[in-house]
Amino acid sequence: MSYRVCFVCTGNICRSPMAESVFRARVAEAGLEGLVEVDSAGTGGWHEGDGADPRTVSVLEEHGYDGAHTARQFQPSWFSRLDLVIALDAGHLRALRRLAPTPEDAGKVRLLRSYDPAAGDELDVPDPYYGGLDGFEECLEMVEAASEGLLAEVRERTEGRVA
């Protein structure tokens, strides 16, 4: 049975698709594709059906990641099939925990940067949407840094599982 991780930001066009793409690449590099499923969603449905922001796609592709994506809204019913729900900032963390049907489901929600020891107390990945390309580059750096720690935890949790 697959271990399922879903990244969540506001509209699912900037931060969470970036985190999904980077983490999917890390999972593939680690040889865990058959064991780990990665996707993303937004807390709101404003961009449902849209591709990722062109700046997200540009930064991802420039760094060798896949930019293909279709935005969707997170649904509370998904908690039952997910193992980890990764919030990109504290607002998403609170919103997702409020949506969680059970305390166990609320416990599945974590902040992405909590997996980066160098992040210190700065655990939010800032929303780059209203800024320039440099904000998307900064977002990618934060996502890449946290993805290593997240991969270590997921690898530990999937040890002994069969694809």
UniProtKB/TrEMBL annotation:
* SUPFAM superfamilies on file: Phosphotyrosine protein phosphatases I
Coiled coil (residue ranges) = none
| Active site: residue positions | C9, R15, D127
Question: GO MF terms on file?
Answer: protein tyrosine phosphatase activity
The reply to whether Hydrolase figures as a keyword in the UniProt entry is yes
InterPro entries membership: LMW_PTPase (IPR050438), Ptyr_pPase (IPR023485), Ptyr_pPase_sf (IPR036196), Tyr_phospatase_low_mol_wt (IPR017867)
- State the reactions this protein catalyses: O-phospho-L-tyrosyl-[protein] + H2O = L-tyrosyl-[protein] + phosphate
Q: According to its UniProt record, what is one Pfam family this protein matches? A: LMWPc
Annotated Phosphotyrosine protein phosphatase I domain ranges read 3-153
Q: Which domain of life is it from?
A: Bacteria
Per UniProt, which keywords does this protein have? Answer: Hydrolase, Protein phosphatase
Q: EC no.?
A: 3.1.3.48
Q: Which family does it belong to?
A: Belongs to the low molecular weight phosphotyrosine protein phosphatase family.
What PANTHER family does its record include? LOW MOLECULAR WEIGHT PHOSPHOTYROSINE PROTEIN PHOSPHATASE (PTHR11717:SF7), LOW MOLECULAR WEIGHT PROTEIN TYROSINE PHOSPHATASE (PTHR11717)
- Supply the name of the protein: protein-tyrosine-phosphatase
**What organism, scientifically named, is this protein from?**
Streptomyces sviceus (strain ATCC 29083 / DSM 924 / JCM 4929 / NBRC 13980 / NCIMB 11184 / NRRL 5439 / UC 5370)
Q: What is the lineage of its organism?
A: Bacteria, Bacillati, Actinomycetota, Actinomycetes, Kitasatosporales
